[in-house]
Amino acid sequence: MPRWLKIALLAALLIAAALAFGIMCRRMAAAYRLLLPPPGPLLRLLLLLWLSMQAMAVAAGVVAVLFRPQQAAYLTFALSGLALLAGWGWAPSHLALTLLYIAAGALFTALTQRDLQQRIRFSVRPVGENWRLLMMVLLVLAVVSFYLGFAEHVRSEGLSLPEQQVEGLTAEVAHEVVAATPLSRLDLLRDEAVRQVQRVLRDLLERQLRRVERYIPPFAAIVLFVLLFAVVWLSWWMPMLILVVLFPLLTALGLAKWTVEIVEVQRLAIH
Predict the structure, then answer these.
(1) pTM of the predicted model, to two decimals?
(2) What is the pLDDT of residues 153-212, one digit of tens each?
(3) What is the DSSP secondary-structure string of the chain?
């Protein structure tokens, strides 16, 4: 198989992973709709986001290790950036964040290849030591997408709680308030009093929500970033483990091969 075709096949892995991650970023822009119970849909979305980030880490590691010269790796990250933008959707903010991803990918490649050149025997450790920067950038892209979508929804439509939950909460509080008054002894007056108290509570809840709604998107984005950061940090070893298995598999398939290089070492000694 020609060398250029091998490079194209391996580059396609990163481009496909970037496209999938871009689609996840687009879905994260609407994730604010899943914040309220039940938590199942939100957890499934975050799991898919995490899996797409792991796929990006593995594909980026393959490109950073195998692609020579470095310009080939830089070009691959640029093409994957276009795929990410295609999956995410066009917007000036998306373009700026995509350029940040491309820069992080180039830096990740340069650091990884530099560390590999300083080692006598091949190891995936340099990949694990440098990929965290790239993963943090991917995490920023996903969380910023969530924030932008949430903030735009609040600006255009405002924030509102589900009618069923508001109805249940205000009705329960209204019954407790009326039960503590003499009106609770008269059925007709009691029902009217419950409706009046419920209406007052609803208006009060809506006014309070309007006062704080602009702070909710950044607060939710910070909480989401902290949670995802913890998950990504605790699972940083998984791409390394996959690469340990993947590189011998690529060698067995003929897509990569082991090479031995003679390196000159300069030392200072007493003559």
Answers:
(1) 0.83
(2) 888 887 766 556 555 555 555 555 556 565 545 454 555 555 666 666 667 667 777 787
(3) --HHHHHHHHHHHHHHHHHHHHHHHHHHTTGGGGSSSP-HHHHHHHHHHHHHHHHHHHHHHHHHHH-SSHHHHHHHHHHHHHHHHHHH---HHHHHHHHHHHHHHHHHHHHHHHHHHT-SS--SHHHHHHHHHHHHHHHHHHHHHHHHHHHHHHHHH-----HHHHHHHHHHHHHHHHHTSGGGGSHHHHHHHHHHHHHHHHHHHHHHHHHHGGGHHHHHHHHHHHHHHHHHHHTTHHHHHHHHHHHHHHHHTTS----------------
